[in-house]
């Protein structure tokens, strides 16, 4: 990615006159995003993807469009969001989708924007979601020590597992005040916990979100060091079965809204859509099949 002297991308986003994917720019079709087949593959072009009309297109694998079908994908799921406020944005965004549809039977528990724990359930969709901060370091707010649970300990202590249980993990933003060895050791502890989980439940999917780019405000809030942390993340977490690394670094730096550690909803929506492509890769196809079957039935009876 080319940068100017202030660190901004020199590539203007959103001014393409045609969809790049409409041309034969790839020598072979992309494989469907899948937990078991596509994990941390490099794209043929060397680029992770691009924005067109405010929608992210991955060049690593063929995504499933979930921007209009988030609720359907998450039915009967138990989801744990473990990490910092950027993964908590995913947690909050999904809740907002249910509330926009005015679904009933929703249970909330302490939904304040803070470090700590939050829970949310939909009885109608048999969906439960739980957020926990990744523990210290914490550079933002005060927190009761009873709410401090490290990611590795959380994975070890939670009894929910299987294909309908999903773990979303995000670390990075708070670790810019630590050194690389500290961060690497923390990741290795998380990795060991994932292996222990997969020993008795190998099909439990783990989605690891990379760091966001952010507005540079000080030397310890630097994108340059954040990128080094990201590199360590990929070194430690790549190649683990049923673990997907979702690269949002380029999704945040490539969007026209600019750098923001907490990006706006259009970016969050694309990030979640990419993640759900691994969890529910065939959901949209099934939905279309049902719709086509219904149309054929109506046509035959007209």
Short description:
The protein is α/β, with parallel strands linked by helices and about 300 residues long.
Can you put this structure into words, describing what you see?
This protein is an alpha/beta fold. 33% of the residues lie in helices and 15% in strands. The chain contains eight helices and nine strands. A seven-stranded mixed beta sheet has the order 4-5-6-3-7-8-9, with helices on one face. A two-stranded antiparallel ribbon has the order 1-2. The N and C termini lie far apart (55 Å).
Roughly what is the average pLDDT, rounded to an integer? 76
**Number of beta strands:** 9
**Secondary-structure class:** alpha/beta
**What Rg do the Cα atoms give?**
20 Å
**What sort of overall outline do the alpha carbons produce when their principal axes are compared?**
globular
Low-pLDDT stretches: 1-18, 37-41, 103-113, 284-302
Percent of residues in helices: 25-40%
Largest sheet: 7 strands, mixed
Number of helices: 8
- Measure the end-to-end span: 55 Å
**DSSP strand content:** 5-15%
For the biggest β-sheet, the strand order reads 4-5-6-3-7-8-9
Order of helix and strand elements from N to C terminus: EEHEHEEEHEHEHEHHH
List the defining traits of the structure above.
single chain; 302 residues; alpha/beta; 7-stranded mixed β-sheet; two-stranded antiparallel ribbon; 15% strand; disordered N terminus
């Amino acid at each position: 990615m080319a940068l100017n002297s202030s660190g901004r991308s020199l590539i203007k986003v959103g001014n393409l006159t045609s969809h790049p994917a409409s041309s034969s720019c790839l020598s072979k079709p992309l494989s469907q995003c899948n937990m078991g087949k596509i994990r941390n593959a490099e794209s043929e072009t060397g680029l992770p993807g691009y924005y067109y009309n405010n929608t992210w297109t991955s060049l690593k694998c063929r995504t499933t469009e979930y921007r209009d079908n988030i609720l359907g994908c998450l039915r009967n799921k138990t989801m744990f969001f473990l990490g910092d406020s950027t993964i908590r944005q995913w947690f909050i965004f999904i809740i907002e989708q249910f509330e926009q549809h005015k679904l009933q039977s929703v249970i909330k528990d302490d939904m304040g924007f803070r470090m700590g724990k939050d829970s949310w359930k939909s009885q109608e969709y048999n969906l439960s979601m739980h957020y926990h901060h990744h523990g210290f370091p914490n550079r933002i707010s005060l927190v009761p020590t009873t709410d401090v649970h490290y990611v590795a300990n959380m994975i070890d202590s939670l009894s929910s597992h299987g294909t309908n249980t999903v773990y979303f993990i995000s670390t990075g933003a708070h670790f810019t005040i630590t050194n690389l060895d500290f961060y690497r050791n923390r990741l290795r502890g998380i990795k060991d916990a994932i292996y222990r989980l997969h020993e008795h439940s190998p099909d439990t999917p783990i989605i690891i979100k990379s760091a966001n780019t952010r507005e540079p405000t000080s030397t310890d809030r630097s994108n340059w060091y954040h990128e080094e942390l990201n590199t360590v993340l990929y070194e430690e977490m790549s190649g683990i079965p049923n673990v997907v690394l979702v690269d949002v670094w380029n999704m945040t730096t490539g969007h026209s809204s600019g750098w923001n550690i907490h990006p706006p909803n259009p970016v969050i929506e694309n990030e979640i859509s990419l993640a759900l492509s691994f969890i529910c890769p065939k959901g949209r196809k099934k939905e279309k099949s049902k719709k086509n079957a219904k149309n054929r039935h109506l046509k035959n009876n007209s």
